[in-house]
Amino acid sequence: MINPKIIRQHPEEVKAKLKTRGVDPKEVDEYIALDEQNRTAIAKVDDLKRQKNELSAQVKAADPKSEKGQALIKQVKKINAETTAVEAEQQEVADQLNYIAVRLPNLPADGIPVGPDEDSNVEVRKWGDIPEFDFTPKAHWEIGENLDILNFERAAKVSGARFVYYKDAGARLERAVYNFMLDLHTEEQGYHEIIPPYLVNAQTMFGTGQFPKFSEDVYTVESTGETLIPTAEVPLTNYYAQEILDEKDLPIYFTAFSPCFRSEAGSAGRDTRGLIRMHQFHKVEMVKFSKPEDSFEELEKMTLDAQEVLKRLGLAHHVIMLSTGDTGFSSAKTYDVEVWMPEQGVYREISSCSDCVDFQARRAMIRYRKEDGTVDYLHTLNGSGLAVGRTVAAILENYQQADGTVKVPDVLVPYMHGATVIK
RNA sequence: GGAGAGUUGGCAGAGUGGUAAUGCACCGGACUCGAAAUCCGUCGAACCGGCUAAUACCGGCGCACGAGUUCGAAUCUCGUACUCUCCUCCA
């Protein structure tokens, strides 16, 4: 949620900024009007309650059974009736206000490109040479099916579209990739390794911003109401929900491997083949809890941490800064890392690193106590480090050889029990 | 799934209808060259509103969460969540 004080104090700026994210300024106007009404009503209710407390104390002093006591009780009852009425009005206003507040996306950070969609994204840096082949490179699904290490047809039979079986060296490669990623994050980059719950409750989904606006994008278990996580960001960020941390403990870095489940509602027809867009996929996630003043720097570091995975795998990639319109709901600033995919000849998203500033912290109530004793919301960040299936796809395509075999990137050889080629 | 117990400030821990004891810690003050010890303190939670330069002041709220009874609820009633113990089941 956006800090309500910012909306109150700088309404025009907020309207302008949210407009770049597709929010109608009228919605902000409505918010401001409701906020004003709400505060007036709260002041009224508080004053009535104050009167009640005063009279109630007098009742005790006077002896409730006395004539005077009975008269006072009559007065209090009257005030209570009025309080109930005003409170009901206030609650209605608060509900309307809340309805808007929880659906407003985060304010975009200063300095990010303004634009309606991905066409306004800006490349910030590039790494690696685009590989050249003396044959026509195949798509990863073709390579995987030919080597009998990926099987989409059987997965379709068993589950449906957008599912896959990994087999033999395919399964081993997937496992090698995420073990390599986790080792890098934990051994060299300072992240705590976590294995989180994969089913979470609705409040948790609200905390990171998936609910209430994006509930159709996820799978919810009918019998219990829990949701299958669409990313480990959800259980990782909510780890400290409703808690107050100590300033001296910040920043805190978490990483977790997990399956991710997404309904992919609205992406019919897109990326229908291969490992790119699945209902179930693996991801190694990074999450940071940071002091507000450090969070943008932490975002830079996190993006480099994600890039490091690709560098060591020798995969060409670039980093782009997302425009206002392309930035996700909870994020103030996002870098996408895109890896080169030879068959299509394009860069494809393999990581997305976001600074959500205090937006999620407000929803999930994650705060920290400063040295001076005051309490404030901290900043949360999240990033993929990386999407495992897409990494496997990139390896298959970038390391494919003319004979249909696939070379194993050097850093993965130990994780592949010494195998240097998948054949 | 069944039975029982529990959930109060940073921690410990009282309080079964009259508006949250006490101890430790913390902070401020006294004492001291300084520290420790000792003593003193409308100290003491998060959150909301008002007024603000303010983390000052005033008020609300506040005893796991939600509802109810009452002039008044930590305390009584109902519901929910979680924790612990035992039974059952189980990878």
Summarize the structure.
Helices cover 40% and strands 20% of the residues.
Topology:
Blueprint: H1 4-9, H2 11-19, H3 25-62, H4 67-101, E1 122-127, H5 140-146, E2 150-151, H6 152-158, E3 165-166, H7 169-188, E4 192-194, E5 199-200, H8 202-208, E6 227-228, H9 233-237, E7 244-246, E8 252-261, E9 280-290, H10 295-313, E10 317-321, E11 333-341, E12 346-355, H11 359-364, E13 367-369, E14 375-377, E15 379-387, H12 388-398, E16 406-407, E17 421-422
Parallel strand pairs: 4-8, 7-13
Antiparallel strand pairs: 1-10, 2-3, 5-6, 8-9, 9-15, 10-11, 11-12, 12-15, 13-14, 16-17
The protein binds one RNA strand of 91 nucleotides through helix 3 and helix 4.
Overview of this structure, please?
With 423 residues, the protein is α+β, with helices and mostly antiparallel strands. It folds into two domains: 98 residues, Helix Hairpins (Orthogonal Bundle), CATH 1.10.287; 305 residues, 2-Layer Sandwich (BirA Bifunctional Protein, domain 2), CATH 3.30.930.10. It contains twelve helices and 17 strands. The strands form five sheets. It has an eight-stranded mixed beta sheet. Helix 2 crosses helix 3. It is elongated, with a radius of gyration of 27 Å. It starts with a helix and ends with a strand. The model has no long low-confidence stretch (mean pLDDT 94). The protein binds one RNA strand of 91 nucleotides through helix 3 and helix 4. Its main location: cytoplasm. It comes from Agrilactobacillus yilanensis.
